Amino acid sequence: MIASSEIMLERWRHYESKEIDVFLEFKVLTSEIISKTAFGSSYLEGQHIFDMLTRMAHIISGNSYRIRIPGIGFFLKTSDDIESENLEATIRNSFMKMMKRREQEAMLGDIDGYGNDFFGFLLEAYHDSDKTKKISMSMVINESLRLYSPIVAVTRRVEREIKMGKITVPANMEVIISTLAVHQNPEIWGEDVHLFKPERFAEGLAKATNNNIAAFFPFGLGPRNCVGVSFSITETKVALSMILQRYRFTLSPTYAHCPVEVLTMCPQHGVQVILQPYEPKLL
Ligand code: HEM
Predict the structure, then answer these.
(1) Please, what are the domains in the chain?
(2) Most buried of the four, 158, 167, 197, 213, by CB within 10 Å?
(3) In angstroms, what is the span from residue 279 Cα to ligand 1's centroid?
């Protein structure tokens, strides 16, 4: 995470006092970090897989409202169907090959270790500064995940008939739970629900949610919630802390606020900011 963030910051030197689209930058950063973490030395191959997954995401989003006739779809394939089938097969093959290689490396004892000591130090430093500052990084992250949840809904299949208030939900029904709707419900969050206010989390989740802690679920809930929670939060904190040590930034006048869903919530026209190098005052 640290090495990839450093590479990104090195690139940013060319953009000092200029406009840069941080949405593109963070896309590159996160795919590089996950590729290196998941695939180790094969991370370039991993990045290729993420590019293919991004393409799949576009195909899925573009086809989500297409009506399919059962059976006929098997014989009549659109160019999107053919492309996504090819992508799926290539991704599956690459994964299988990499897993085999990793298995062999593990047996030979060739897999890298991680710099855990430095991580421990960094996170401890953050936990300490949380205590003293009014707005902590966790509050900012939570508020961003509340207002702009990357996953706009989670689904569950109901195993047996249940009653939810006045509604009876029959068995086998698929229920879509809208993260967006719950995260923006004024009865839970208050009338300022549409404002970006990290301080709403200052006194904990129960206070922020009017005692409905399950109303905040950017990573889903229950035994099948996201396995990448700690990974993503750590990644955000590491990258942000490294960025903020070097830069202050303001939104560029060219920025147009337009969140859209392309499998995950994304800024349609990017996020253009102006980077100002930060020179900390010596005490
Ligand atoms: C900000 C970043 C992320 C968000 C907001 C997010 C959100 C989610 C959500 C809402 C779910 C569905 C959970 C549910 O149905 O209850 C999910 C599932 C999952 N996520 Fe994430 N995720 C993020 C990053 C990651 C990362 C970095 C990884 C991998 C390292 C990851 C791996 C997974 C997996 C494997 C599942 C399926 C879990 C299961 O079905 O048991 N996620 N994620």
Answers:
(1) 2-151+218-277 (1.10.630.10)
(2) 197
(3) 37
Q: What is the dihedral of CA 250, 146, 57, 2, to 10 degrees?
A: 60
* Mean per-residue pLDDT pooled into runs of 10, the chain (283 residues): 92 92 93 80 72 84 74 76 89 82 72 38 44 76 96 94 93 94 96 96 95 96 93 95 92 94 91 87 58
- In angstroms, the CA 139 to CA 204 distance is 9
pTM for the whole thing?
A: 0.79
Give, using CA atoms, the residue closest to atom 12 of ligand 1: 220
Q: Is 154 in the pocket of ligand 1 (CB under 6 A)?
A: yes
3-state DSSP assignment of residue 196: coil
Residue identified by tokens 């290689």 is: 101
The protein residue with its alpha carbon nearest to ligand 1, atom 38, reads 226
Q: Which is nearest to 241 in space by CA: 145, 147, 127?
A: 127
